[in-house]
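User: Please check token order:
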Amino acid sequence: MVLILFILLLVGVFSNQLRPVVETVAVSKATNLITVTVSEVVEQCISQQGLGYDDLMEIHQGQEDGSLTTVTGRTTTISQLRSEITQTLVEELENLDAGQLGIPLGNLTGWMLFSGLGPKLRVSIESVGDVVAEVYNQFDSAGINQTHHQVLMDISVTVHLFIPGEVTSVTVDSTVCLAETVLIGSVPNSYLQTG
């Protein structure tokens, strides 16, 4: 009986010392895996629908000279794409293989010799908390009367990781480019820089 109590006490002390290490490694692996999954899902959704810049944005030109006047987003298409990305992302995260997040016990020894060896400590995504996707435009100067336009999406994913003995929340923020182009306006006959 004393031996059993001693072993339980030893396991308790050992697990309390390893818990921060296990949590750090699990959060790092989950962050990397979620970031890769976000990129893959966005690429998959865009390529399946065959979307390009012209499908997401509409360029209006002047009647007389054909010069660029305004750029308008195609709201319905953008909303459908955002919805599909969010839904697919939730499905992909819920179906992740727990083995991808497992931590070999050899990694917890701190010795390089045992790194990657031993049975894996099971870590799994208990549930997907929130997936929030917001689309916005970014305009940057690209030269005289030229503007680099990007349609960007900020994606924030919160998941709850089950590490033996506790549940830890992880939030990963990613920004992906949905489409981009260089908008070219009319070039003036003369250019004066003062200064």
